[in-house]
């Protein structure tokens, strides 16, 4: 048993979508935070510089530097500007960086800190800088104060604490986080609905279950001997197993091809239109006679495809013939047992009555008859299957009081392997049994069997001295279901013989007229030919 943990499709989709959304949010939040920090610092720096520049150009500020106590004039103005631009501090100092204005009054008159005044006091520059003052790290706008003669007499510094700038950025990120949470929830809900939709399409099966079903289906399709074809609702081939390709001699890919191009006469489209299953239909596919079953594929009572299974009729027929021959052998053995039992009772009775000479005569006659037949069968006919058939039929003929003889001119070597033994049993068994039935009511009851393999063909000939074939019967003699005899399950023996001889590329001839008996002759090539026209002289 596998110890691997199975994760459901829904969990996979939820985990994947949420992970992607979280990663995207983090990435975008980081980029936004960087851009926001840059933009905020630039905007606050420009605001600080503008405020500092504006304050440095004010005449009142310049004139205050000539007063004994400049801070009394400059301090109120600086606090007013600080409040208006919402700065953390507005500091005004002289050219020696001594404060004349500061948010903390007690720091007025003391040295400005930060070490970033040189550019303004020495070079008269207007700039933005970062430095740490008495209130902490800050972003500062620096502007020199010039008198009417253009001399630098002081400096204005307007600053915003870095901490406050960061707080503003964090506030915006919190707003973004709220939006991101909503996006995350929407993504989770969307992924949940997607997973539900996929599970509905897959009939509630998880991916590993689908993979298992697919493997099992492929294994089953490749293992069954029956050909299997399925089409979709458009009439295109969806599945075809290897057995179907072998039966129909197809060596190209049929996937998604219209069924009419692959099998023009399958009638699967008819089932697709009607939705009615068809069972045990005999038809020809690619020059092969097959038994076909067709069944619609339904989804919510709607036909979405058709599956057809078919099997070569030859295999089905061979199976039926094999069962029939087993039954015939059983009957032949029963007949043989019954016949010898009767003879044993006769011998026992004669011996009990003291008729020893008559008992000996019966034994000698039986021995001579058996010796004659056995000599021909075992010495001149070397194929064990034909030997077994003839021995069984001899016993059956004896029970029915029919004189069944094997022509002494018969000679037969072992049958070539391409002639299937079950086919041979069907041919000889049916012809000999039909001959027995033809003479059962005649006198004398005689049937003659002849076999030879001289030349390029194997020849079997069964002659009965019965009533012969009536005029007008010959064209229907090998038609399936046609029979001149009474009873059920008639009219199949000669039809089977004809089909098997045709498969073996052989020839079947029938001669005889009413009152003269009938001769059935079978000619089978020793070597199977690819192109051979079947001939039936009947």
Summarize, please.
This protein is of the alpha+beta class.
Account of the 3D structure:
The protein is rod-shaped, with a radius of gyration of 55 Å. The chain is an alpha+beta fold and 538 residues long. It has 3 domains: 9-168, PAS domain (Beta-Lactamase, 2-Layer Sandwich), CATH 3.30.450; 224-354, Beta-Lactamase, CATH 3.30.450; 380-537, 2-Layer Sandwich (Heat Shock Protein 90), CATH 3.30.565. It has helices at 9-56, 59-64, 70-85, 118-123, 162-201, 207-223, 242-247, 259-262, 268-274, 313-353, 356-380, 384-399, 421-439, 493-503, and strands at 89-94, 99-101, 127-133, 136-146, 152-161, 227-232, 237-240, 278-285, 288-299, 302-312, 403-406, 446-452, 457-464, 507-511, 518-525, 535-537.
Q: What would you report as the Rg, rounded to the nearest angstrom? A: 55 Å
Query: Helix-strand pattern, N to C?
Result: HHHEEHEEEHHEEHHHEEEHHHEHEEHEEE
Total number of strands: 16
What does the overall shape look like?
A: rod-shaped
Write out the CATH superfamily name of the largest domain: PAS domain
Strand composition percent: 15-25%
